[in-house]
Amino acid sequence: MTSASIFHPQFQVVSDLHLETPLVQPSYSTFKLNLEASYLCLLGDIGLAKDDGLYVFLESLLKRTPNLTILYLLGNHEAYQMTLEAAEEKMRTFAKTVARTYGNRFIFLNRTRYDVNPTITILGCTLWSHILPSQMAEVEARLTDFNQVRGIREWGLEEHLKEHQQDVAWLNSEVEKMHNEEPERQIIVFTHHSPTIDPRANNPIHTNSTVRSGFVTDLSSELCWKSAQVKLWAFGHTHYSFSYREEGTNKLVMANQKGYIGLGEKPESSNNGSKVIEAAGDTWGILPTRSYTV
């Protein structure tokens, strides 16, 4: 897949809107998202795939902004009260449906490579976490994902870990392929779950959590993380917003997460404003807040 844009593309990164809340009156029709770039990157937990309101919200964004392309990957919440396979199929169906009216402007990232232009590629997947053996019992008991009524249907530790292994293998394979065949290509990686235990990327109150590995995986030894071709890695899931430039690879690592505002989230863990990334040469940075006009 390709895009016609070749001049300093900009990417607005947002995750964890949780529009399925509050439960008594979901916010699909009331939440206002300021669009500030031609690429809107929704990195999971935007809403529930079973809810029609999610698709009404997404289509409204395409309708109101003709030059907008949405890149969407699943979080864990999208599949709540259905199987993961059913959630994926709902997203694929929506992408095909809106393509008839709006063109290929909704891209479902499900172990998907998307070429923005001849020099920049996006790799997107959920990146289910690697649950540590010492935390498996706690994670299975405490995370809603594993509740067969409220969480993901037909889902357990075995399925979770299998998906993790497939995600990491796919990321490494795609990065290696570009390293060998397209060494000048710049890579963006979008995931839902966190790929790093770096303290700058994690809320310190969760450092010693007995369910931490349900949210965070240390990929520091993996090619997909070590490659200097990866210029940006953005993710969600942890309800913690931050940005920093990693030493060594010089990639920008960031998250812009809303979380459960009004449901006990602390201010420092909530969405902290616009995060628009501009790809300009080897120096990728976060732009000042401004409204995007077409």
UniProtKB/TrEMBL annotation:
Coiled-coil residue windows: none
MF terms (GO), sorted A to Z: hydrolase activity
Domain of life: Eukaryota
InterPro entries: Calcineurin-like_PHP (IPR004843), Metallo-depent_PP-like (IPR029052)
Ranges for domain Calcineurin-like phosphoesterase: 13-240
Any Pfam family hit: Metallophos
Name recorded for this polypeptide: Calcineurin-like phosphoesterase domain-containing protein
